[in-house]
Amino acid sequence: MPELPEVETIARGVHERVRGDCIVQAWFSGYSEPFKTPPLRQAKGLAGRSVLAVHRTGKHIVCELGPADNEGRCGTSERPEAQWIVHLGMSGRLLVTTPEAPVAAHTHARLSLASGRELRFVDPRRFGRLEFRDLQRGQSFGAPGADPLAIGPEKFAALFRGRRLAIKAALLNQTLLAGVGNIYADESLFHAGIRPRRAAGRLTRAELERLRISLRQVLSHAIQLGGSSVSDYVDANGIRGFFQLEHCVYLRTGEPCRRCQTPIRRIVLAGRGTHFCPHCQR
DNA sequence: ATATGGCCCTGGTTGC
DNA sequence: TGCAACCAGGGCCATA
């Protein structure tokens, strides 16, 4: 399940490989209903654009696109005129391949590039979303929540003030923090020594600061290891990440805590499997 | 206003 | 061995 570190890894990989390339044409599968922009409009908007940069915002991959000139060739303007926004949902993958590479089942988009390669969007569970934005008509994409890697102590504490919901549920709320998903919510709460069910607004200032630091450390460590490959996650080159080997609680129900040997417990919170150490987390 | 729970969707795993 | 039930959960939406 791609969360911030996995999305960051994929965005960096795609950036390195397709920056400066040009989208010659775009193909979309018949499946399209939940896409934020109708496939025909995406295909029309993408064709002839140059890829200026690819980066992550929250759990979204944003491709900054330049203009095409009169001959249909790619422009070289530095200022983005459009954006292609990819959300991978649960099972989405964004791959750079050759056109000859076998087309995986559930491939929903294929962008042919001027270099002769293809950028493909594959998503078996169809929780992913694709959107095209014309920046001359609309606003640039922005995540609603704060960046957990950049937020400071004051703003972080303010996010949770007065909130009665469980801290785990609050961490998953993308309008508060953008990019935290189930794995890193559980892992950061473990490292901060906080029980997932604690009411967000009742955490002490010291606990909130431990949580902010833990979150930042867990996320940046995971980025260094290329993310967590817990199901079928692979990066833009088809390479798996290694952070799953570092997990302390996530999907370790019944296994001994790495710190105190107490068996890890699993509860359901906000509809999500939630894992914690009953001894280390208070 | 905040908070909760159901739904979507497929593939892998478990259990009979 | 075969098949069905179950589980995984991000984001959206209806409801309380």
Overview of this structure, please?
The chain is α+β, with helices and mostly antiparallel strands. The protein has 2 domains: 4-134, MutM-like, N-terminal (N-terminal domain of MutM-like DNA repair proteins, Alpha-Beta Barrel); 153-276, Helicase, Ruva Protein, domain 3 (Orthogonal Bundle), CATH 1.10.8.50. 24% of the residues lie in helices and 21% in strands. It contains 6 helices and 10 strands. The chain has helices at 4-18, 39-46, 153-160, 167-172, 182-192, 205-224, and strands spanning 23-28, 50-57, 60-66, 82-87, 93-97, 107-113, 118-122, 129-134, 265-269, 272-276. The strands form 3 sheets. A 4-stranded antiparallel β-sheet has the order 1-6-7-5, covered by helices on one side. The radius of gyration is 20 Å and the shape is elongated. It binds a DNA duplex (16 and 16 nucleotides) through loops.
